C-alpha cells in the first residue's frame, strides 16, 4: 500500500475541475487523480496536462453511477488505504434557453448535483484520512435560491439540526412538486440548479457537523464554496473569471494547512466565508 498522499477531483476532464487538478499538480505533495465519466475525455485531459509538464493520474468516475463510485472507493482503499483530499466538483446545468420541461430539468439536475455528490460523499468520506480536506463545489446561486424559498423552507435549510435524511426528503419533494407543478405553491424557487446547490451547501453543513460529532480528533476540514462566474462550457464565454481563477477558492480549501482549525462547515466565495 502506498503512503503517498492522494487527492481526487470529480468531473475534472474540463472546466473548473481541470483547473483544480492543474493547480493541485503544482502544489499538492502527492498523487492527484483527474477523474471523468468518459475515459477518453479523461485520458485526453491527462495528456494535455502532461504537455504542460504536469503529472496527473486518471481514474474513471461517473457520480451518477454507484458502481463507478464504489470502484473508485475500492481502488483508493487498496492502493492508498484512504484519501487525503476530495474535491466534489462535477455538476451540470441546463442552459437558460433549454426547452426541456422543468420537471425533467429538476430531476436530472438534482440527480447529479445533489444525489450524485451525496453518493460520492457517502462512499468516500469514511476513507478520509486525518487532516484530510473535503471541498464541495456549490454556487452563490444557492444563496440566491435560498432567499427565494418560503420562510418555512429557509428556516429548515438554515437549521443547525437538520439531518441528512431530512435534507434528502426535501430534495426529493422538490422534484416531486415540480412533476405536479406545485413547486412554487410549496415555497420553492423556480430554479432547479439553485435548489440542487442549496442541497450541496446544506449537505456540507450537515457533513461538517457529523465530522465534529464523530471524528473530532481527525481534524478533517469540510467546506462548500462558489468558484465565481467562470468561463467554462457551463457558464459561457462572457463570465468574468478564467478557469484557473475559478479554481483558486476550491484549491485554497483543499490545501488548508494541517494546523488550521477552520474554515469548517462554511460556504466561501473568493476565499471569504459568507453567512448562510
Ligand atoms: P463544465 O465545464 O460543464 O464541467 C463540468 C464537469 O463535470 C465536466 O467534466 C463534466 O463531464 C463533469 N460531470 C458532469 N456530470 C458528471 C457525472 N455524472 N459524473 C462525473 N462527472 C460529471 O462546468 P464548470 O463550470 O467547470 O463547473 C464545475 C462546477 O462548478 C460545477 O459543480 C458547477 O455547478 C460549479 N459552478 C460553476 C460556475 C461557473 O460560472 N462556471 C459557477 C458556480 C458554480 P463531461 O465532460 O463528461 O460532461
TrEMBL record:
It is found in: Cytoplasm. One of its GO terms (molecular function) is carbonyl reductase (NADPH) activity. Pfam families: adh_short. GO terms for cellular component: cytoplasm. Gene3D superfamilies: NAD(P)-binding Rossmann-like Domain (3.40.50.720). Its EC number is 1.1.1.184. Coiled coil: none annotated. SUPFAM superfamilies: NAD(P)-binding Rossmann-fold domains. Keywords: Cytoplasm, NADP, Oxidoreductase, Phosphoprotein. It comes from the Eukaryota. InterPro entries: CBR1-like, NAD(P)-bd_dom_sf, Sc_DH/Rdtase_CS, SDR_fam. Belongs to the short-chain dehydrogenases/reductases (SDR) family. This is carbonyl reductase (NADPH). It comes from Chauna torquata (Southern screamer).
